[in-house]
Design brief:
mainly alpha, Arc Repressor Mutant, subunit A, 3-stranded antiparallel beta sheet, about 65% helix, globular
C-alpha cells in the first residue's frame, strides 16, 4: 500500500502555509468587520469611502477593483452612499460616458472619523501580536505570495498593492 505520500499539514508545507494564512485572514477579517460594524458602517461602504479618502476621486469600476467588489456590488454600494449624501457622481473631464465618484463634505467627515477609529483598532491588534520589524517582514511575505498567486491564477490581473 505505497500510494502517493500526502502532503503534511505541519512543518511548513504548502498546504500548512495556506491553512495558517487562511485561518489568520478569517480571524483578522472578523476582527476588522467587528471594528467597522461598531462604527455603524457596513464593510463595503467603509471600503468605498476609504478608497476615495486615500486615492481621491475614482471611476466606479476603479473603486470596484481597489476594494475587490463585483461590478454589481460596487454599483449598489455607490448608489447607497450617494442616497445618503456621502458621495456624488460627477462627469469625467474628457470621457463623456464616464462618471467619477467624489466624497462629499459629509462623506469626508464621516470616513475620516470612522477610519481613525478603525485604524486605532487595527493598530491595537497588530501591536499586541507583532513587533514593527515583524510587521514589515509579514507585509513583504504576504505581498510576495499574493503576487505569485495572482500571477498564476489570473495572468495580467494582479494588484497586490495595499
Amino acid at each position: 500500500m505505497n500510494g502517493p505520500k500526502l502532503e503534511s499539514l505541519t512543518g511548513g508545507s504548502g498546504v500548512h502555509v495556506f491553512l495558517v494564512l487562511w485561518k489568520a485572514a478569517r480571524a483578522a477579517q472578523a476582527y476588522a468587520e467587528k471594528s467597522i460594524y461598531e462604527l455603524e458602517m457596513c464593510g463595503s461602504d467603509f471600503a468605498v469611502l476609504e478608497a476615495l479618502l486615500h486615492k481621491g476621486p475614482l471611476p466606479v469600476n476603479e473603486i470596484g477593483k481597489k476594494v475587490l467588489l463585483t461590478s454589481g456590488s460596487i454599483t449598489v454600494a455607490v448608489d447607497r452612499l450617494e442616497t445618503k449624501g456621502l458621495v456624488e457622481r460627477r462627469a469625467h473631464g474628457t470621457d463623456r460616458r464616464a462618471r467619477i465618484v467624489h466624497l462629499t463634505k459629509p462623506g469626508r467627515k464621516l470616513i475620516t472619523r470612522v477610519y481613525a477609529g478603525h485604524a486605532a483598532d487595527m493598530e491595537r491588534l497588530a501591536s499586541a501580536s507583532l513587533t514593527r520589524a515583524e510587521r514589515k517582514t509579514l507585509i513583504s511575505l504576504l505581498k510576495k505570495i499574493g503576487y505569485e498567486a495572482a500571477t498564476v491564477s489570473e495572468p495580467g490581473e494582479e494588484d497586490t498593492s495595499a
